Amino acid sequence: MRKIYDLTAPICLENDEVRIPKPKSAEISLELIGHDLLLSGTKLFKYLSNSIKFEVHLGTHMDLPTTFAYQSIDPFKIPVDFFIREAHIVHVERDYSKKSLTLDEVREKIDLKEFTELPRERRPALLFKTGMSRYWCHNNQKYMNFPGLSKSLVEFIAYELEPPFIGIDAISIDRTIEHRSLSLYTNIDEEFINILRMQEYNALLGHDILLRKNIYILENLDMREVPSDVSRGLLIALPLFRFTSLTEKSVLITALPCRVIFVPEPEGSVGEVVRKLRTLEKELSGIVV
After folding, report:
1. Residue 273 lies in a domain
2. Is 268 left (phi over 0), alpha (psi -120 to 50) or beta?
3. What is the percent of the chain with per-residue pLDDT over 90, rounded to a whole number?
């Protein structure tokens, strides 16, 4: 039976407290609550429920252009098939204590034609497995220390590949000082912060570049179980909630918490056969005059 991977980062609980990597100011809580029902005027029944409160940019979520108030796409009107598509996983596990992920590291691992030869709406999603998932809830400080994607890599994605969205098993695609500020943790890598301050630094520049191009960003994926020989498959990244507006007034929804499932492509799958046929067709067209 084929292995199916749940790429959704879990909500980690320690007694009654939620313990996940997050900025200090971001709120998330889970509470047990009870409800009373009065039936027939005589008997009192109680049932238990839970109340969860969280910011939508916590856990596994998809950043939308509305994060920066870009209104080019109405999140209420995104079709469900947008969230279900082929995905390519780029394996780039290494030590990310200081250096951002660069274009040189991934260029040879991405086939440009698999993106550019398709209409944008049919292009695959692009996922990066950095290995940071292993720190989720186990070492939140290290998880928050991911230095992000380099500007050249982000621009390559935005202007060459143009996928509908990308994903990453890290806190952010940007190497933000905010994520590592001294207000978050007492034991912080001050040397790293000083290195960032000496570099050209623009907060959330990667987000800005991609979201302006309507390329959405899946963050906090859990890719620990995805083996290195799995790089292609079907991605299902469905939002947990479906929003609709009852009035003409627009509401800013800046991110969509998602449940993300990945189904690896089996050997000899239809997609693989189609790609081989496309290659053969090109070869034959070069022979036939």
Report:
1. no
2. left
3. 55
